[in-house]
Automatic annotation (TrEMBL):
Region: Disordered, residue numbers: 569-588
Segments traversing the membrane: 30-55, 67-87, 99-118, 124-145, 157-179, 185-207, 274-297, 312-335, 342-361, 451-477, 489-510, 522-540
Source taxon at top rank: Eukaryota
Protein name in the entry: Major facilitator superfamily (MFS) profile domain-containing protein
Keywords annotated in UniProt: Membrane, Symport, Transmembrane, Transmembrane helix, Transport
Main localisation: membrane
InterPro entries in alphabetical order: MFS_dom, MFS_sugar_transport-like, MFS_trans_sf, Myo-inositol_Transporter, Sugar/inositol_transpt, Sugar_transporter_CS
UniProt membrane topology term: Multi-pass membrane protein
Residue ranges of domain Major facilitator superfamily (MFS) profile in the record: 30-544
Gene3D superfamilies to which the protein is assigned, alphabetical: MFS general substrate transporter like domains
Amino acid sequence: MEGGVHPLPDTSAFRDCFALTWKNPYVLRLAFSAGIGGLLFGYDTGVISGALLYIRDDFKAVDRHTVLQESIVSMAVAGAIIGAAVGGWANDRHGRRSALLAADFLFFIGAVIMAASPGPATLIVGRVFVGLGVGMASMTSPLYISEASPAKIRGALVSTNNFLITFGQFLSYLINLAFTKVPGTWRWMLGVAGLPALLQFSLMIFLPESPRWLFRKGREEEAKAILRKIYPAEDVETEIQDLKDSIDKEIREEGTSEKINFRKLWQTKTVRRGLIAGVGLQVFQQFVGINTVMYYSPTIVQLAGFASNQTALLLSLVTAGLNAFGSILSIYFIDRTGRKKLLLISLFGVAVSLGLLAGIFHQTTTHSPMVTVASGTKFSNMTCPDYGSAANSASWDCMKCLKASHPDCGFCSAASDKLLPGVCLVSDDTVKDLCHGDSREWYTRGCPSKFGWLALIGLGLYIISFSPGMGTAPWIVNSEIYPLRFRGVCGGIAATANWISNLIVAQTFLSLTEAIGTDMTFLLFGIVSVVGFFFVIVFVPETKGLPIEEVEKMLELRPLQYRFWEKKKRPEGTMEEEEKLDKKNQGV
């Protein structure tokens, strides 16, 4: 199919998706079934944030060593790196459907191992298995949906994958709350993670392979049968011919559509430009700090001054809900506003909210309650040794108390007002229970603060800015920006870059907050988001409304677009093709 950028009809893809429910529910069935891979991704991201609070209580070694907490979180990410890399190869060799089925099997095995873990080491092994499944599903689900969707509503349907990611995160917080009072809390939280994998396996085993992949493998009759279910009868023959012409062209150019190597990828201008944009977006998606918020959301809430595990989980549920709401906004705006504009609006909001969070946490850490002497109280024999031996103990505040490490110490707030001076005590379960028994709050992560609610507002602003743009658009751009013969491999490279970046952030966040402070950590993420803003302006093309077969031509001819708000000039001789696509889109 030839032509330039096609204008969208007046009716948005968001409304078309609802119309499609009535006209052709088969397409939504394909999108929803594959999108459960996003649910796996989201559930694992959210569930570990709450489970970690209780894992620390059960395994004291985890509570004492930040690196163990980071490893329990990040080893799933390490597994996802391998899963995404293998997923690119598996997608091209065995098909999108087979890759999703393999991902479900690995995820289920990992969930069982985690639920039965006798110690941190086995738990980490289970996290690796889960990560392998999540990594494969993260790049396969949007690819499958993209290749089984009509061009006009492709962005909206791929956005359903991101909605299921955010819904999975929201669901995980609900399940975390449901199991807070149940014996074996975190084991149930992590074990339930196997259910979405079983659901997707049960659905996908009865669904077909991607029609575009079938064409690549010479299984044309199977592909035609699927396309006839996806497109209206008056359009299907044109779509079949367009796809056949695209594959034939690739075979003529390459001799065979299967000969792919990394040198060829980089030497091909269209692929190189696509990789710069696609991989760059995936890296910036992680380096603006989103998964620190999702993996450590209850911990961040505790750093803001909310001591209770249950309170931290409940307040984190609000951020997960905003994330899901933002993904719904994305479904509406992604094909109406365009990928690039939505990315820029998103990054601007992210930068502002991270700057706000940095300022709030700076105020929280510099205005924490002072420490008072515990002599003459029932806590007199439990005073933190570092405080008792300090020459400048009169200058100690809550933050300094929490940094004591010989042994670890906690802050027991005043009974009447948690913002008044409290006592610095040895951190153990007996002291914690005594503190609670005296109608006080026990703090080991963050300190009491009158700015805590402002931190929650900042987190909410961050999530609602990130989710509609940076949460969705990088996956959509990567599902449509690469030429067909390179799509599986390039998608795997981009997903691998995403997971490597995710691993770096997840493995360093808690250590960064200890080394440079929570405020400077969020400020660092804010600086990265500003850099990402300019990256999008220069390197990321607008693919809104482009049929997949035309993306390669667009990349070949496209200069750097600094004035992203200006409409692009359409190449001569494309009016007839555009009119044809408009008529087809109106019939979807």
